[in-house]
Amino acid sequence: MSALAQASASDAYSIAERLEAGLKGAPRGLIIDGKSVQSVTGKTFATHNPATGKEICQVAEGGVEDVDLAVRAARRALENPAWRDMSAVDRSLLLNRLADLIERDAQELAVLECIDNGKPATLTKAVEIEGSIKTFRYFAGWPTKFGGETLPVSPRSGAKILNYTVREPVGVCGLIVPWNYPMSMAAWKVAPALAAGCTVVLKPAEQTPLTALRLAELALEAGIPAGVFNVITGFGEAGAALVDHPGVDKVAFTGSTEVGKAIVRGSTGNLKKVSLELGGKSPQIVLPDADLDAAAASIAAGIFFNQGQTCTAGSRLYAHSDIHDDLLARIADHAAKLTIGNGLDPAVNFGPLVSEEQWDRVSSYVEIGQREGAELVCGGSRPQGLNEGFFFQPTIMANAASNMRIVREEIFGPVLSALSWSDPEDLVAQANDSDFGLSAGIWTNNLKQAHRMAAAVKAGTVWVNCFNLVDNATPFGGFKQSGWGREHGRQAMELYSEVKSVWVNLS
């Protein structure tokens, strides 16, 4: 841990105490048209600290009527000259100003994310907060560079025609984000949407609503006009209403494949644009010539980081039979060295699962795996001495087989399923034998083999001798049932824009 991270985490408990005291009292409101308001029904729900299971505060429970109010506010803002006619330079300045404010409040935001999501505060600061700052700064550069082009056309002989294309905002965007990376996933969608000139209604997961609300407040402080960035907190009813609403032009969703399919069905009313970043069951493929120390450390991080609650988690290990046992022992050693506990403690690098529901899900899969014949190498239950909260040990299951549910289904927890292989052709078939295709890891010192394997694996991202690296400049998304479209880079800007072709007769 860096000295800066240690300094930031040293007073995390006192920051958390102050934040929680400030959150008591009136429920946290929805953000609609630049104001914090309670839901039309007056309903609220509790958000809990996963490390203790205790309530943090009450939050407004948005419903169908609230979604309608937010969408209408976003539509007015879209047509308001203050936003519609804003210059590209000024839009860039606003996004950079928002990044400045996130940076100013980085320590408090990191602690807020920690108590609402559970991941250690040192990691929320490095991943969620610093990642969000980078995302807004990156997309702040796009408004001045994202445009159309002139095209050489030949519609008929002798005609003098000028043809050019322009990029226009797709419109009002419904953004639905998950609980595993609450703030950074919001930034991944909000930043390109605003950079493209859209207006948004953000629906955070009900488990983790607090940083989304704070982000919208900072956007207003940055000078982003009222109605451009709205937030509806609540449950599935609110998300469904956002998908169904005829005033929404595009839906961007990160979450489960099951919900993604429901969103596609719900979007047909006005044929709104849809982009989806969905589930994964990522293979980690280890060839016999790999650097086992480097592979073991990265594979452990790839499945145990964020308690395995990551769409790209490397949850399927395919290790060559010659090195399988040795590699598994090294990964288990890394698991044993993790410090489990409340993420406010700077020594902790493995926090709780997000909720009791998620704890039950992960535990049930471990039981299913054992019934199907997998061997429990380590973990599989609650850590000793941590009786409060939703803590679950890092878990490795050996002797897994391709037909087992722990190999085929997304567990979304710290559970690694290990399989052995010896035939390279059969290995590729096994790795691709999945409904998902989000990412994959390949470990080898053979350059030719690495490229051949990367070409053969069906995944949107392939990491060779590394894992879980992402950057705003490079596209991110999946094959097969892992989603539609790509986030980051120019591809993200294209998701939030429409192309208009203009023909001018110069004859």
Description:
The chain has two domains: 8-278 and 483-501, Aldehyde Dehydrogenase, Chain A, domain 1; 283-471, Aldehyde Dehydrogenase, Chain A, domain 2, CATH 3.40.309. Helices cover 41% and strands 20% of the residues. It is built from 18 helices and 22 strands. The chain has helices at residues 3-10, 12-23, 64-79, 81-84, 88-104, 106-117, 121-140, 182-195, 210-222, 236-244, 257-266, 292-304, 324-336, 356-371, 405-408, 424-432, 447-456, 489-495; strands at residues 30-32, 35-37, 44-48, 55-60, 150-151, 161-169, 172-176, 199-203, 229-231, 250-254, 273-277, 283-286, 316-320, 375-378, 395-398, 415-421, 436-437, 439-443, 461-464, 479-480, 483-484, 497-505. The chain is globular and about 75 Å long. The model is unreliable at 1-9 (pLDDT under 50).
What's the total helix number? 18
Overall pLDDT metric: 95
Strand order of the largest sheet: 14-15-16-13-12-18-19
From the N-terminal CA to the C-terminal CA, the straight-line distance is: 68 Å
CATH topology of the largest domain: Aldehyde Dehydrogenase, Chain A, domain 1
E-strand count:
22
Radius of gyration: 24 Å
Largest sheet: 7 strands, mixed
CATH architecture of the largest domain: 3-Layer(aba) Sandwich
Query: What proportion of the residues is helical, as a percent range?
Result: 40-55%
Instruction: Write down the domain tally.
Output: 2
* Uncertain segments: 1-9
- Tell me the name of the CATH homologous superfamily of the largest domain: Aldehyde Dehydrogenase, Chain A, domain 1
So what's the CATH class of the largest domain? Alpha Beta
Would you tell me the structural class of the helices and strands? alpha/beta
Strand content: 15-25%
Shape call: globular
Organism: Novosphingobium taihuense
Enzyme class: oxidoreductase
Family: Belongs to the aldehyde dehydrogenase family.
GO molecular function: phenylacetaldehyde dehydrogenase (NAD+) activity
